[in-house]
Amino acid sequence: MIAFDLPINVQNPVRHQHAVTVLVNRERTKHGLRPLLFTRSLRNSARRWALVETRLSRFGHGDFDRRARAFPFLLGGTRGGRILAENLAWGLGPASTPRRIVQAWMRSPAHRATILGNWRYGAVATIADSPMPGLQTSGVTVVQHFGR
């Protein structure tokens, strides 16, 4: 059973990121789009950024264009023909559930457009930690990278 409604402090981060992935793909199929294919290179880049966010107690995309040039997904492409995007989220307690994270993304026009974009690949990284100092114990930081 997939735990869509359990907060991060009572579930494993790997199960949490799987649930976020399933919910994002459900949104895509509801809108006539193909589910995203997993790729380890996007998961690794998403995980690295989630760790930076939590370790430095900050939240934001930073210089995404500059960071993206070092992603293994891009480096593995031919002649720079690959394109990337990123969604970020964080939540505490009840707002840390996979369902609440994806619902928040779908209510945001920019995040929704990314989820429903012309992507072929995607990967989620979940860190059981908040980017906000003092709020780590019941917090989650989620990064999803998209590619084509």
What do these coordinates show?
- It is a single chain.
- The chain is an alpha+beta fold.
- The chain is built from six helices and three strands, in the order H-H-H-H-E-H-H-E-E.
- It has helices spanning 13-30, 40-55, 64-68, 72-75, 98-107, 109-115; strands at residues 84-92, 121-127, 139-147.
- The chain has a three-stranded antiparallel sheet, with helices on both faces.
- Helix 1 packs parallel to helix 5 (98-107).
- It is globular.
- The model has no long low-confidence stretch (mean pLDDT 87).
SSE class = alpha+beta
Q: Tell me the radius of gyration.
A: 14 Å
Shape: globular
Spans where pLDDT lies below 50 across 5 or more residues: none
Q: Which strand order spans the largest sheet, edge to edge or round the barrel? A: 1-3-2
Helical element count? 6
Output the helix-strand order.
HHHHEHHEE
Distance between the termini: 30 Å
Topology, number of strands: 3
Tell me the major beta sheet: 3 strands, antiparallel
> Strand portion, in percent?
15-25%
Which bin fits the share of residues in helices? 40-55%
What do the pLDDT scores average to? Answer: 87
Give me the secondary-structure topology.
Elements: H1 13-30, H2 40-55, H3 64-68, H4 72-75, E1 84-92, H5 98-107, H6 109-115, E2 121-127, E3 139-147
Antiparallel strand pairs: 1-3, 2-3
Helix pairs in contact: 1-5
